[in-house]
Structure prediction request, 431 residues.
Amino acid sequence: MGNAKPTPLRAAPTESGDALPQFKTPPLDPTARRDRPNGPLDGDSQAKLWEAFTPTKPKRWSRYFAGRRWAIQRVITAIEEEQAHVVIFGARGIGKTSLANVLAESASQVEYQVLRCPCSADITFEEIFRGFLRNLPSEFMDRSARAKNPAVEHFEQLLPRGSFGPTEMTVALSYLKLEHVILIIDEFDRVNSDQLKNQLAETIKNLSDISARITFIVVGIAQNLDELIGKHPSIQRHLVAVHLPLMEAPELRALIEVGESASGMHFDDATRESVVSFAKGLPYYAQLMCLYSGRHALERGSAAVEMQDLREAMAQVLNEADPVTAAMYDMATQGERNGFMTDVMFAAARCRFDRFGAFTATDAADVSLDTDERKLRELTLHKALSTLTLPQNGAVLEKHRTPSGTTKYTFQHQTMRQYILVRQARQRGLI
Ligand SMILES: Nc1ncnc2c1ncn2[C@@H]1O[C@H](COP(=O)(O)OP(=O)(O)O)[C@@H](O)[C@H]1O
Ligand SMILES: [Mg+2]
Prediction:
């Protein structure tokens, strides 16, 4: 034992060993690309694919953004006609930041000045608004205000030197006359401080009272308005809340089409429909599956994405799944002999659901578990779904009671529904 030699974890590399992995990112110097072939699969195909399908990045521009026309219209009406401030909320990965970006793009093309501020957990009112006012130049004041404050170059200089709050902010912003400014405050769900939430509410009220030429768009993860900004009945009439739902199938098809034209790839009909059905309304997941399957098609030297590429992509999605999701799934289904909880999870993931992902035991009872159309009984499901809300079963589901007394469930974890379907796809004959 004692004289056993330690074994190296890996064989030492030899001089002639395999080359190190290389980045595939194209070089920044465009002249360096000249010698590449120009066919559909030249070196730019990868880069174009990554630009077209971006699971980890919000869309910045409308040309890459699909659907959501009603939401864009709702926000524009709120700002232009109702002179209201806007709160955009919804689940993670549903497209809130992308929507805010596209609104910013469109507003900047007309007379609005758009500024953004992403929030961190410990950001303060003063940090948000000092930075904001520093970006408003004195040219935005009218002539008389500039005459009164000749030394002022930007609005921050209108604030007192020490600390300040909503009142001082409102005074400073009352000088804003020549431009209409939109401030996008993103990731507001990260904010822990109730004080900041109260100060923001007070500011919204004050600014609405003086009809200041400024609009806030507050964005964050939440299931309802109060959860994001706190309970403030006095500002409800100055706010328009947009709860962003899951995307409809036609919107997801449009998302894929937009990506197709940006990447030069083509998804055949069966593959496109499969992506739509596995994404279950979540644009993040559609982007992920399109990117991965597109990559497999390119590896085969093809610009046409087919079912075989999607199959490979799904294996990769499973391999790279968030360990928390995988662990919750294992907790929910562990140790069973007859696969009952696996069936329950499948029925929950596959059944119809409302715009925000909620479903009932009746919905789950309608799901065929296999090609023999086997289904779970509704009574059985009532009990089984309820147990899936318990911590010892991974707390996969969350229970809600609607005002009419119906019990509804949602998945706790944003991508659990998709994970279940991908994980069970082969055994259920979905792919
Ligand atoms: N309308 C859309 N069209 C195309 N892709 C979208 C759309 N909305 C969101 N996405 C994609 O979905 C993912 C999540 O979007 P994001 O805006 O970051 O969501 P959130 O801010 O709600 O977490 C990103 O990959 C983004 O590119
Ligand atoms: Mg976001």
Remarks:
- The radius of gyration is 26 Å.
- The pocket of adenosine-5'-diphosphate (ligand 1) is lined by residues 54-55, 57-59, 65-68, 92-98, 255, 283-284, 287 (CB under 6 Å).
